[in-house]
Write a structure and sequence with these properties.
The protein has 452 residues and is of the alpha/beta class. Among the domains are: 156 residues, no CATH class; 91 residues, Pyrimidine nucleoside phosphorylase-like, C-terminal domain (Aldehyde Oxidoreductase, domain 3). The protein has 15 helices and eight strands. It has a five-stranded mixed beta sheet, with helices on one face. The radius of gyration is 29 Å and the shape is flat. The chain starts with a helix and ends in a 39-residue tail after the last helix.
């Protein structure tokens, strides 16, 4: 089994809504068999004993109640997913069908259903599983509590800020698996590949279409070192490739072509859509989509965009503070290792800012909150990343100048505000106000960094 197949199986298990509930049903049946065996050898107190008719009635009621409760859970899930995809972004649906609370609630309810039905069919005039009936009642109570927790969680997840917070958490997790962070392998280089005169000895093409969900960079580097070849990965995680597109170019002697193609194809996982596992840019894409939909004329909810900018700014800061440097391949280097395409800080910043700036070009609070995000990034990201932030601030200035030309609110639109509108003056670390002076172009107070 290849690495790509194992990855797809893991993703299927994580995204499937039936696997965990089916496991709960199996556990329920096994627990029923165990309790029947215990009940046949244990004499319970008379207070815990049930008559056959009472036990049948109780278990029948539990079966009906749990079946109805399971239907409510499914109905709520469908409604929440429909509302979320309409209000936020269809890409945010993965937050719901991957939710462990949803799967746990379904597993408990279906397990209780299977458990109760298994007990019900074993009730006879001479035998009643008294302990099993009592446990079934307790499981029903626990199921009601879990249903209340599930409903509370899903209702709260419908808030834009909650969605943005979950996606921002995914950014931090995906950075740990980002292929750009594989510098410890030693033979991984950043493209482009330049200065190679001879053609590739082997070209590996994709056998199917799909989005690149993940890449086993360690496996590719190991294969390249073993074969003493230079392997060039032409597509980054998140790109959609068509059937027949070139995945790899190999320089050197890879051995039998068929075996090399199978090995390399098995190290790239393709799927229907992007995932966050190795693709922090996709998480940012989801947040930008949520903000963009909120800024559409049909919805016109700039406050939601401001809430998204809160978590988007934090995600960009984490990326901008990280050391994403890697050695570049050059013509004089040994032709052994892996050359990969890597997103630059400029790419992440443009992805997070451009569309929100364009869609919110007439919203004062969006522009003010965006300026606050950029000015904070300018102070906190790595020095080599600050030029891109300065350029983005210049674009924001141009957007304000164009959108509020001749407007009385032009000065307001050019002021940084951590709350969009209505926020207090920001203070430096020493307690002094960190803005003063007047910008002759926009009529806004420019940032003045205050140090201790």
């Amino acid at each position: 089994m290849t690495w790509a197949t194992r990855f797809r199986i893991r993703e299927y298990l994580r995204e499937s809504l039936w696997v965990v509930p089916a496991l709960g049903a199996v556990i329920g049946i096994l627990c029923a068999a165990a309790l029947i065996s215990i009940d046949s050898h244990v004499k319970v107190p008379s207070d815990w004993a049930y008559s056959p008719s009472t036990a049948s009635t109780v278990l029948s009621a539990i079966v009906g109640a749990v079946a109805a409760l399971t239907g409510f859970v499914v109905t709520v899930t469908v409604l929440v997913a429909q509302m979320a995809s309409g209000s936020f972004s269809p890409r945010s649906m993965r937050l719901w069908y991957r939710d462990p609370v949803l799967k746990g609630a379904l597993a408990l309810l279906i397990g209780t259903l299977a458990y109760s039905f298994s007990l019900l069919r074993r009730i006879e005039s001479t035998f009643v599983p008294d302990l099993g009936v009592t446990l079934a009642g307790l499981l029903l109570i626990v199921g009601l509590v879990i249903f209340a927790l599930f409903l509370d969680r899903f209702v709260h997840l419908l808030r834009p800020a909650a969605v943005a917070a979950l996606v921002a958490k995914g950014v931090r997790q995906s950075l740990d698996n980002d292929i750009a962070g594989a510098r410890d392998l030693g033979n991984v280089f950043v493209g482009p590949l330049e200065g190679v005169a001879e053609p590739a000895s082997l070209t590996v093409r994709s056998s199917r279409a799909g989005a690149v969900q993940a890449v086993d960079l360690r496996g590719i580097a190991t294969w390249a070192g073993r074969q003493e070849c230079l392997v060039v990965l032409l597509h980054s995680v998140g790109e959609f490739i068509e059937s027949g597109d070139v995945l790899f170019e190999v320089y050197g002697d890879p051995g039998p072509a068929d075996a090399a193609e199978r090995a390399l194809r098995g190290l790239v996982a393709l799927g229907l859509e992007r995932t966050i596992e190795q693709d922090p840019a996709f998480a940012i894409r989801v947040m930008v989509d949520v903000a963009g939909k909120a800024l559409s004329p049909a919805i016109n909810d700039p406050t939601t965009a401001v809430q998204v900018l809160d978590y988007l700014g934090d995600s960009l800061r984490v990326i901008g503070e990280a050391d994403r440097s890697a050695p570049s391949w050059h013509a004089g280097a040994a032709k052994r290792g892996v050359v990969i395409p890597v997103r630059r800080w400029d790419d992440f910043l443009a992805l997070g800012m451009t569309e929100i700036r364009e869609f919110g070009s007439t919203s004062i609070q969006v522009l003010r909150r965006m300026r606050a995000v950029l000015e904070k990034l300018l102070q906190e990201v790595r020095p080599e990343n600050r030029a891109a932030v300065t350029a983005e601030l210049a674009r924001l200035d141009a957007t304000v100048a164009a959108g509020f030309s001749g407007s009385i609110d032009r000065g307001w639109a050019g002021i940084a505000d951590g709350q969009g509108m209505g926020g207090p003056e920001r203070l430096g670390r020493s307690g002094q106000v960190s803005v003063d002076g007047e910008d002759a172009t926009l009529g806004r107070p420019p940032v003045k960094v205050v140090t201790d």
